[in-house]
Amino acid sequence: MTRNRAGKGRSRSDRNRAGASRARRRNPTPVKSHFPWRVVLLLVALLCLFGYVLISIQGASEEGERQDSGSSQSTQQQTQVPAEPADPLPQAPTEHWEFIDTLPNKEVPIELPEQTQSGGPYQMQCGSFRTDEQAQTMRATIAFAGVESQVRRTEGSNGVWYRVVLGPYERKRNAEADRHRLQKVGINGCQIWNWN
Q1: Domains annotated on the chain, with CATH
Q2: pTM greater than 0.85 (yes/no)
Q3: DSSP labels, 104-163
Q4: For labelling alongside 12, which of 26, 58, 155, 193 has CA 20 to 30 A away?
C-alpha cells in the first residue's frame, strides 16, 4: 500500500506539531521589551562626572584670578614709581605743496578728432501693420516705455501699410539707446536706417 505524502501517512502527534508550528508562525508570541536600566544609569553617572569637572575647573579659574589680582595689587603698591611727563607730540610740518593750490584750477587740454556725421539723420521702424488699429496698439506700447513714436501710412505695390517709426535721430547712438530701452520692455525687431 502506498502512502500519500500529503499527510495521510503521518501520525497524529506529527500533525499536531506541524499545526502548532503553523499557528506560531501566524500569531507570534510578543517579545518582552526590557528597559535598558544599565545604559540609563551609566549616562546619568557620566553627566554627573561632567558637571563636577566643569564646576571644579570654574572654581580653579576664579581662585587663580583672585590670586593674580591680589599679587598685582601688591606689586603695584611696592613698585609705585613717579610717572615722568610724556614727550609732547612733534610739531606738524610747515611745508606747503604747490599742487594743492594749482590742481583745482588746472585745465588739461584734450585733443579729440572731429566727429563727422556719416549718412545724416537716422530713423527706427518698430513695426509694419495692415491695419491702423494694430499700429496704434504698438505705438501705445512704445509710449508706455517712455519713447515717442509715430504711425505713417504708406502705399506700395502690395497694398497699404501702417508703419510705426521713431525719430529722426541726429546720431545712431541715440537710436541705439532707444532700441535698447524698448528691448528691456519686450519690444524686439526694431530696425535703424539712414533717413534721407
Answers
A1: 122-194 (3.30.70.1070)
A2: no
A3: TT-------PPP--SSS-EEEEEEEESSHHHHHHHHHHHHHTT---EEEEEEETTEEEEE
A4: 26
